[in-house]
Design brief:
The structure holds 2 protein chains of 2 kinds.
Chain A lengths: L5 H23 L31 H37 L1 H15 L3 H11 L4 H28 L2 H8 L4 H37 L11 H8 L8 H34 L1
Helix pairs in contact in A: 1-2, 1-9, 2-3, 2-5, 2-7, 2-9, 3-5, 4-5, 5-7, 7-8, 7-9, 8-9
Chain B lengths: L1 H28 L4 H6 L6 H10 L6 H13 L13 H36 L4 H15 L2 H15 L12 H35 L2 H8 L4 H37 L5 H11 L2 H29 L1 H9 L1
Classes of the chains: A mainly alpha, B mainly alpha.
Chain lengths: ~270, ~325
């Protein structure tokens, strides 16, 4: 067992803390949404408010802790949902080819021609916005690249001897696809899900920042940045803290994803 | 060759039709009554609603409305904005310059800094400057533009006071000064991507046998590098073409943050207001620009690389 790189240890620690906040946010920050219009926006150092308060007098630190939930839940759901579509369509398209493959290819062409974030803004905006609508839109927009990835990986496996022999043995195609091929493509899937979580975090918080994600007043890092834009003079930390949190979390997930896919590449190379 | 271009143009047309149908379909699926939006603050009476519907052809079937829009769009008439009442074409042309300036500056910055940095990192693989640069580029790729913008705004505009907080300025130098922070914020993510890409492309070429052979023959390191860079340029140029789309996606957030009246901010306002004609026109035009850039990149390729030419023409 080789030593873990320091960056990976730090990333795992950061993600563990964010995960803990997402799960137990109510316990750690029970007063996240408590408003104090009388207090208004104050800078850091005020008694009881380490990072100051936002325009509604809400504590920036507690609000940021509570925001961890929407920062993790949505992106994880987007990555898993789009990968589910990717696995279902990509496996069938890669293994069977033909009409399904054609259809999957055109679907990917259409959605990949526009940058995902741009289409997400247009579609989520015209549908009226909202967190779950944004999540659903992103699942659809993220899936084409997953379809392509799984399809390519499955096609690479499908020509190998073990699949040939499974075919000769008369095993049903569905069983070959999902019991024989899929486990061998699984590592690539895991690495890509992680990378997609980072992209989805950035995309979802962008939508929230533009007012197309969570409703006003909800605890969300993107929303905090949008509100904090007006407070750069009175309490800059209202936008700096959630901004750094988004950057840190996305970087940690990306580093972890890169590390896992490097590890898998090396494993394949030594085989 | 001509066949290749024609086929690509055909695909672009199909794509634009599909995309515009999608946005048009969304307009129908969207919650709320368009006619009420159009009335704005005026009295909502059945007569007024009926009149608005007739004026904007909202009573016609879906395909007929779409056809009416398409016939106009082909001749460059994208209709009138619901929000301002002005012509969509005029709104777009008055704002396109600013977005082009920010995107152009950001593109130039990220290429001029990113490519040399990526080459330098690849040549010193594994050294601490290389690892540092790789680390910074991961952060750059991960960091959303609006978060970076706000931090830059706080540090350089509010804190140090070196740059203006918002506005576009007047005159060339003042304008450039006003666009410095937005362009840097936009260029950071892009530049990080360019660094990663360039480093990977150069590393891949350095591992090739021809490099070993060239060195063994005693070629000067500078001349070897020229050969390596020529070969590494192909993936880099392709990705630079793909970045045009990324740039526009990024400018939406940057323009909103810096309160700049460009196309990106227009898209945000129009989406929030459900100003369908503007959204529709912007989506189609952006998709058109992206497809055309992709086509130009592919053509540049065909001109540069005989291997690619042989493969494409055979296909």
């Amino acid at each position: 067992m080789r030593r873990l790189p320091v960056t990976i240890v730090v990333s795992v620690v950061i993600l563990t803390v964010v995960l803990a906040c997402a799960i137990a946010g109510g316990l750690i920050a029970p007063h996240a949404l408590r408003q104090s219009l009388y207090l208004g926006s104050v800078g850091a150092g005020q008694a009881g408010h380490l990072f100051g308060t936002d325009q509604l007098g809400r504590d920036v630190l507690q609000l940021s802790v509570a925001g961890a939930r929407s920062a993790l839940a949505g992106p994880v759901l987007v990555a898993l949902g789009s990968m589910l579509i990717g696995v279902l369509m990509g496996t069938v398209a890669g293994y069977r080819g033909g009409a399904v493959d054609m259809l999957a290819g055109r679907y990917a062409d259409l959605l990949l021609a526009m940058p995902a974030i741009l289409l997400a803004i247009v579609v989520a905006g015209l549908l009226g916005g909202g967190y779950w609508i944004a999540v659903g839109v992103l699942v659809l927009l993220f899936s084409p690249s997953d379809v392509r990835l799984v399809r390519a990986a499955v096609m690479e496996q499908a020509s190998r001897p073990y699949i040939e022999s499974a075919k000769v043995l008369g095993i049903r195609p569905r069983r070959i696809m999902f019991r024989h091929v899929l486990p061998n493509v699984f590592p690539i899937i895991v690495a890509n899900v992680l990378l997609n979580v980072a992209f989805a975090l950035v995309a979802l918080s962008s939508l929230s920042y533009l007012g197309l994600g969570v409703p006003p007043g909800a605890a969300d890092w993107g929303r905090q940045l949008a509100d904090g834009r007006q407070l750069l003079g009175s309490n800059p930390l209202a936008s700096i803290v959630p901004g750094l949190l988004i950057i840190l979390t996305a970087t940690a997930v990306n580093l972890l994803g890169d590390w896992i896919s490097d590890l898998l590449d090396r494993k394949v190379a030594t085989r | 060759m001509t066949l290749f271009i024609l086929r690509r143009l055909g695909m672009t047309v199909v794509l634009l039709l599909a995309l515009s149908l999608l946005v048009f379909g969304l307009m129908f699926a969207a919650p709320g009554d368009l006619a009420r939006n159009l009335l704005g603050t005026k009295n909502v009476t059945p007569e007024a609603l009926a009149q608005i519907r007739a004026q904007y052809h909202l009573n016609e079937p879906f395909l007929e409305q779409y056809w009416r829009w398409l016939a106009g769009a082909v001749t460059g008439d994208f209709g009138t904005s619901i929000r301002t009442g002005g012509s969509v074409g005029g709104m777009l042309t008055s704002r396109v310059g600013l977005t082009a300036a920010i995107s152009g500056l950001a593109f130039a910055l990220s290429v001029l800094v990113g490519v040399p940095a990526g080459v330098a990192a690849a040549l010193r693989r594994g050294s601490w400057p290389d690892r540092l640069l790789v680390g910074v580029s991961v952060v750059g790729v991960s960091a959303p533009g609006f978060a970076v913008s706000l931090i830059l705004l706080y540090v350089f505009a509010v804190g140090l006071g070196w740059f203006p907080i918002y506005g576009t300025g007047s005159g060339f130098l003042d304008g450039l000064w006003h666009l410095a922070l937005p362009s840097v914020a936009l260029a950071l993510g892009l530049g990080a991507f360019v660094v990663k890409l360039t480093r990977a492309a150069v590393l891949r070429e350095l591992d090739e046998d021809y490099v070993m052979f060239a060195r063994a023959r005693g070629l000067a390191p500078g001349r070897v590098l020229v050969i390596v860079l020529r070969n590494a340029a192909i993936p880099i140029v392709t990705s630079l073409g793909l970045m045009v789309g990324y740039l526009f996606g990024g400018t939406v957030l940057i323009e909103v943050t810096f309160a700049l009246p460009g196309l990106g901010a227009l898209l945000e306002q129009s989406v929030l207001f459900k100003d369908f004609p503007v959204v529709q026109a912007l989506t189609v035009i952006v998709a058109f620009v992206i497809s055309m850039t992709a086509l130009l990149v592919d053509l540049a390729y065909l001109a540069i690389d005989p291997r690619v030419r042989a493969r494409t023409v055979r296909r």
